Amino acid sequence: MSIKLHRDYGQECTRLDETVSYLEYVLHESMHNEQAFRENIKEAYSRINSLDGSEGYIALLTNVKFFEMTQGNIRQLQQVRSRPYFCRIDIQPDDTERVQPLYIGKASLFRPDTQEPVIVDWRSPVANVYYEGRIGKVSYETTTGTENANLHLKRQYTIEGGELLDFRDIDITTRDELLQESLGGSADSRLKDIVSTIQEEQNRVIRAEMYRPMIVQGAAGSGKTTIALHRIAYLIYTYGDRFNPEQFMILAPHQLFLKYIADVLPELGVEAVRQTTYLDFVQENIGKKLKLVDPNQRLFRFLQRDEEVRLLKFVSRYKGSQSYKEQIDRYLDEVTVRMLPQTDCKLGKRLLCTADEVRKFFCEDYLRLPIYKRVEKVGKILRERLKVKKKQLLKDIADHYDERLEQALFLQDPVKRKAKVIKLMDDREALLKSVEARSKTLVKEYMAQFPKLDLIGHYKELLADDALFDSLMSEEERRFFQAHSLQLLGKKRMELEDTAALLYLQHKLFGLLTEVKVRNLVIDEAQDYSIFQLLALKEVLGSEMFTILGDLSQGIHSYRGVESWEAVLEAVFPNGNCQFLLLEQSYRTTVEIMNLANRVIVHSQTPGLVLAKPVVRHGEEPKRELFGEQRALLAQVLADTEALKGQGMHSVAVIGKTMDECEQIQMWMEQLGTKLSVKLLDEKEDYSAADLVIVPSYVVKGLEFDAVFIVSLEEEYTADELDVKLLYVAMTRPLHRLFVYSMEGKTELLDLLEA
Ligand SMILES: Nc1ncnc2c1ncn2[C@@H]1O[C@H](COP(=O)(O)OP(=O)(O)OP(=O)(O)O)[C@@H](O)[C@H]1O
Questions:
Q1: Which residue has its alpha carbon closest to ligand 1 atom 3?
Q2: Which positions bind ATP (predicted)?
């Protein structure tokens, strides 16, 4: 039935028209106000210049604040003007007869005259009913308690360019057409928001209580990244009176990924939230003293099975462990003890501070400060005390000599008297001078007994301390661990595995280099984090407000990352208040592609593996083909890509196992010639500008494309654990089409699927 025949069509069109024109009116007014605030700022600025001091300054600040707020409102209204809302709920609170239709969108809009909501923000408490409520009795939480109501209608709209194209009523039995429509669309080079189709299990993650930490194990394509961003938007909206956006941070694996997600938060009306990588966060806070060993090169070294690889893997795992943190704590205790002086600090015979008092400063009063900040504190206290003591001492000396001079004046013999007076005056002068001179060096000399090393010096000292590690590993392992780590430091290099220790040491010894305001942390792709990385973050942020999202099946760095979520719960959140949620439903890809990917991942050793369940969306079977010549394989990829582009597939990727393989693919494409723009991606790139991207398997996690070619020229995916995971990650990237093109003889893992 055409929607135009629906009995509510006319009414819905009128409501939309009214909303759009009211929105345009508010937008127009806001622009007018923006201009007025701009003028006021200019005016206030000139008043500051004309020396009308504080009044002008206050006016300037107030106007800047209003100007920024208005700009924010304008941006939000502009974003929603073509699609002001996406659904409606008709709700009747238990204590009234009135059924109120509420239109839910990505911004909120009120009529101040009638106090009627024109658009209700998707993050507001009542909007929860849209995501979770069934027609009939519902309840939702507000700041004042639980509200009970009757839900009469849930209606979804398709609106484009301010025009109503379609609407449908939904309840539990209706298939969610809007979701199907949204999933059937094409992948952009940027992640998008999903406010209109957030699913119930996802909504629970987004709206989970802020103060409790949360771990989410989510299958590939279950929406973890998307949810992470929506959760931040929700928290900022809900707790905006207590927290500002600078107190939120999202950690993602690399720059390419950050560019991929960059637009979502602004689209959701959220700005100023820090989006960074763990490495950048660490380097910003310890300085860029050391160069990073490329973790991806290491990854492929680990495919070999020699004794060195066993030891390297051991080192990686150990450096991410809680045990390593505990040994560092022991080392820090030793450093503290070494700092404690054995002698008192005295100016002459006068005591400035006893050794015991310094011990108390160190081990009690200023215990919460980093060790070197405690040293600074002691220095400051001594300097302050010295000032007072010196003044007193100088006065006592002066008084003492004045008295003796007075007595000398009574001597009968003028010659003796003169000699005595001169001697006393000289003595006084000399003593005063020596007190002055001693005061200049006293604190400096006393403080010199505190050992001083820089961060790297301490790290080297720690690593060289056999006694710390003796009982925890075999002698062979300890020797390798120490030699390997110290050798790297000697070349001014570190591994990613060292960053937790360095961040932690910096925090405990010196304090971080920047003031970290972040209290609320969202970590995406968290399966690649070690326990120690998480513990270090918890320590430096001084907060447990963590949302940790990851998928163990995609743990390609499992030699250094999370082994099991239970281990994280136990080590990082031992007080048992951390929530654990599972997202099994996968939204990205078709049933056919997901089924094939699931047949791959069952060959992994992932603990407690939970297979992804695809939403019911069918597509073509993944295409497998073997080739005798590399040239023919890539000619086929190019021909298929052109055909796919013709079918409206915007983003197409060729995934090679390693960077070498990708470079070879690129070389062949250049030789073959194509009118498509082709781009080879590494972790720092941005892929928005190319028709076809070539990307290594270990970089591709988190991203998605309309169609994906998994190509094996020289590098095959074997049945090894790492390869299983790399292939699984690659296979779960496409939305619609998957092609697996291999050279003959390069199909070990895929052959297993046939068996
Ligand atoms: N509720 C939803 N409505 C519409 N689209 C959704 C929904 N949930 C997820 N998606 C889509 O599914 C795709 C996968 O989402 P996302 O990348 O956030 O998943 P992920 O769990 O982080 O995946 P992976 O671990 O495989 O990288 C995206 O295109 C996202 O827009």
A1: 197
A2: 218-225
Write out pLDDT tens, residues 296-317.
Answer: 877 877 777 788 889 999 999 9
Rounded Cα gap, residues 14 and 18, in angstroms: 6
90-102 mean pLDDT: 92
* Dihedral pair phi/psi, residue 702, rounded to 5°: 90, -25
Q: d(Cα 679, Cα 461) in Å, to the nearest integer?
A: 45
pLDDT in tens, 592-629: 999 999 999 999 988 778 899 998 789 999 999 999 99
183 Cβ inside 6 Å of ligand 1 = yes
Phi, psi of 173, deg, nearest 5: -85, -15
How many residues in total does the chain contain?
755
Helix (H/G/I), strand (E/B), else coil: 399: helix
Phi and psi at residue 519, to the nearest 5°: -120, -25
Beta carbons within 8 Å of 647's beta carbon, 6+ residues apart: none
- Which atom of ligand 1 is the closest one to the Cα of 735? 29
d(CA 430, CA 17): 94
Annotated binding site for ATP: 218-225
Our answer on whether the CB atom of 182 is closer than 6 Å to any ligand 1 atom is: yes
How far, in Å, CA of 733 to CA of 187, rounded? Answer: 10
The amino acid that residue 158 corresponds to is T
DSSP element (H, E) containing 368 = none
Q: Which amino acid is at 163?
A: E
Q: Are 249 and 274 in contact (CB under 8 A)?
A: yes
Q: Do 668 and 631 meet the contact criterion of CB atoms below 8 Å apart?
A: yes
Which tokens in the block code for residue 127?
Answer: 């909007």
Determine if ligand 1 sits within 6 Å of the CB of residue 73.
Answer: no
Give the position of tokens 């960077």. 659
Rg (CA), the chain: 34
Atom of ligand 1 nearest to the CA of 554: 25
Helix, strand, coil in percent for the chain, rounding step 5? 50, 15, 30
Does ligand 1 lie within 6 Å of residue 704's CB atom? yes
Supply the pTM of this predicted model. Answer: 0.89
Instruction: Please tell me the distance between residue 587's alpha carbon and the centre of ligand 1 in angstroms.
Output: 6
Quick one: which of 751, 740, 500 has its CA closest to 636? Answer: 740
User: Does ligand 1 have an atom closer than 6 angstroms to the CB of 192?
Assistant: yes
Task: Say yes or no: CB of residue 601 within 6 Å of ligand 1.
Answer: no
Burial class of residue 183 (count of CB atoms within 10 Å of its CB; 0-12, 13-18, 19+): buried
User: Binding site residues, as ranges?
Assistant: 218-225
Is any ligand 1 atom within 6 A of the Cβ of residue 220?
yes
